[in-house]
Amino acid sequence: MLRTAILGLGHYLPERVVTNDDLAKMFTTSDEWIQQRTGIVTRRYVDGDVGVSDLAVPAAQRAVEAAGLKMSDIEFIIFATLSPDYQFPGSACLLQDKLGLPGIGALDVRNQCTGFLYGLSIADAFVKTGMYKRILLVGAEVHSSALEFSDRGRDVTVLFGDGAAATVFGPTDEDRGILSTHLHADGRYAKDLWIEIPASCYQPRMTKEHMDEGRHYPRMNGRKVFKMAVETMPQVVHEALAANGLTINDVDLLVPHQANLRINEFVGRELGLPPEKVYHNIQRYGNTTAASIPLALNEAIQEGRAKKGDIIVLAAFGSGFTWASSVLKL
Ligand code: COA
């Protein structure tokens, strides 16, 4: 049976390391508060005018190299991000140009923390139907240019970091690859985690008053996000296991979206997974949204925590609200 396999992974993080103490110099917070509530110790920020498509270039190059391919082998680009370089055109088009691939299709996915899993499901469908054989999926974010470094925005600001990660997908007839994807959304919660402005439903889309009110910064109902994440992530993992006739004992590693260490520890316990079977790197990078799952998966492989033949479960929850899972055999 033809399946879609991960042929290569790569990631790129900007060099600037920002500690909790660095943030505590800009607004009222503390290393203790941030670590206790979120597990985050450091995050990375870009320096100067760097967009997500810039961060994506080295991540894509590393993924293509890891796949043993040339950049010119890539037939289609999917770019998952909530922080596109510009309002339009999409960052996939900008990346396509920067990678020197004029003419190939380029698609942006706007599904926030589940963007990588939504993108993976599209790549899987395209590969399985024979439409493309070599698809580059990138998840990348530059959050630091849209965070509010003041007490008003501190609940959100401490959580997020910049970064990029990429995956090359292609067909395989070996016993490995993507076994399933499950995608969900509930738009009733759209305003519980969002950036409102600029908004096409307002005339004009953005005013000085909007900016004075901070409506161009991310806003979050943290408690609701936490509650829904710990409910839906175990559900969507059970859904994935049932669809594949697997039990939790078959899982070698859960690689969850890295939003909050406490959420992921709770999800692991709820599923009955021992701590060593749940991967975390949020301590170093914060929440890198669409980049977080491929970044975590790549580091898990590099550290020997995920190996060829392992059953890996990916799961995410985020703005929308959206939630999703995928089961892979590496
Ligand atoms: N530093 C210090 N104090 C902070 C703070 C910060 N960065 N952010 C908020 N606080 C304060 C609040 O103002 C509040 O003070 P008060 O009691 O005087 O009103 C207090 O800390 C508690 O705030 P609360 O919002 O109740 O904290 P919490 O226990 O819910 O933790 C989060 C806040 C954000 C850590 C938590 O809700 C969370 O992780 N939610 C999920 C967020 C997430 O994962 N988002 C991305 C999803 S993809």
TrEMBL record:
**What is this protein's function per UniProt?**
Catalyzes the condensation reaction of fatty acid synthesis by the addition to an acyl acceptor of two carbons from malonyl-ACP. Catalyzes the first condensation reaction which initiates fatty acid synthesis and may therefore play a role in governing the total rate of fatty acid production. Possesses both acetoacetyl-ACP synthase and acetyl transacylase activities. Its substrate specificity determines the biosynthesis of branched-chain and/or straight-chain of fatty acids.
**Record text about domains:** The last Arg residue of the ACP-binding site is essential for the weak association between ACP/AcpP and FabH.
Q: Name one GO molecular function term.
A: 3-oxoacyl-[acyl-carrier-protein] synthase activity
GO (cellular component) term, any one: cytoplasm
From the UniProt entry, list the residue stretches annotated as the region ACP-binding: 258-262
Pfam families reported for this sequence: ACP_syn_III, ACP_syn_III_C
Q: What is its EC number?
A: 2.3.1.180
Q: Which residues form the Beta-ketoacyl-[acyl-carrier-protein] synthase III C-terminal domain?
A: 241-329
State the family named in the UniProt similarity comment for this chain.
Belongs to the thiolase-like superfamily. FabH family.
- Is Oxidoreductase among the key words of this record? no
All residue ranges annotated as the Beta-ketoacyl-[acyl-carrier-protein] synthase III N-terminal domain in the record: 107-187
Summary of subunit composition and partner proteins: Homodimer.
Under InterPro entries, the record lists: ACP_syn_III_C, ACP_syn_III_N, FabH, Thiolase-like
A GO biological process of this protein is: secondary metabolite biosynthetic process
What protein does this entry describe?
Answer: Beta-ketoacyl-[acyl-carrier-protein] synthase III
Q: Which residues form the active site?
A: 113, 257, 287
| Catalytic reactions of this protein | malonyl-[ACP] + acetyl-CoA + H(+) = 3-oxobutanoyl-[ACP] + CO2 + CoA
